[in-house]
# Entry
Amino acid sequence: MRTHTRHKVPESQTEPQQSIFTAPSMTDPEPLMTTTIRSPLAQKVAGAPKSELHIHIEGSLEPELIFQLAQRNHVQLPYASIDTLRAAYAFTDLQSFLDIYYAGASVLLHEQDFYDMTMAYAERALADNVVHTEIFFDPQTHTERGVPIATAVAGIERALAEAEQRGLSSKLILCFLRHLSEADALATFEAALPLFEQYQHRLIGVGLDSSERGHPPSKFERVFAKARALGLKLVAHAGEEGPPSYIYEALDLLKVDRVDHGVRSIEDPALVARLADTRVALTVCPLSNLKLCVFDDLTKHTLKALLDKGVAVTVNSDDPAYFGGYVNDNYFATLDALQLNDAELYTIIRNGFEASFVTPAERAALIARLDAHWHGKPAH
Ligand code: ADE
Ligand code: ZN
# Structure
């Protein structure tokens, strides 16, 4: 299934690596000097404090950073240049994307690499006025190359702690790769147990991602039961490419707190009614769905239909480096295509705070900030 070469951490490379952020390289891209005129509503969305609840940190690796890390770590990529890599971003479905996404992640070997990747994402999120983010990472993508889970989490955590000082609060969610066995997921979970303890302020849940078709949530019932017993939050990708039955399984067997994507729920009216009644949120990623051909046109996206039926939909970027945009770009494209109005956009942004895994007091404070921006009410 995978096409990339595996790279173990070279034993000679145990020295801490210099941060890409303290030493800008000659290969940094020129800033794009484009000016886009946005509607007043788009500007209001851009300036609003927002959450992001569906972002794979490995999917935030921009091609420039992939090549910088490949050079720094002496990793041979199956792409000759940044342009060749970018040219490969013409996806036909989820699997065609995942093959390239795993090749991109193969440059991540050291704690510093995870720090640099996460810091780059945090900068983009802050620029979009994201004030709270809940980040996925895929430990099995790294352990299979000899990179311990602790290395990944330490680098991600160091960047998130710094970003917190700059106004971006965050949580971290460990995702199991569903194309691998449940035994592999269970072993990963056992290996991560000390990290759930050590980073309990940050590492608060588990998720399920990778190739959906043929890998239903039921395959992971036991490992999710173990995570639930520990009091961890639970999410799963379901109904991205997979059928509504996968969403039922995520709800009934895994007992998830949120469903990632879930856009195919629209095919089952009883499921839509249940999602609306229970307010189990969907973390929708419109540009991802477009790029992975879940919808052939954003005007056909089901987000507005679900919103109209009372489902708690949220807007997120999924793998922004691969799908052509971060959170604000997802809002801009969606509000244009679906002609979303002021009240609908407020509801979607607010849903993002309602569905986040923060304390009730933190949630109230986030919503007060949104209200201050949106309705001009004073935040207290
Ligand atoms: N891993 C990264 N992005 C993903 C997506 N959109 N669906 C499933 N697994 C993923
Ligand atoms: Zn995803």
Summary: The beta strands are 50-56, 130-137, 169-177, 203-209, 233-238, 258-261, 281-284, 313-315. DSSP finds 17 helices and eight strands in the chain. Residues 56, 59, 94, 101, 209-210, 237, 240, 288, 318-319 surround adenine (ligand 1) (CB under 6 Å). Confidence is low (pLDDT under 50) at residues 1-17, 21-29.
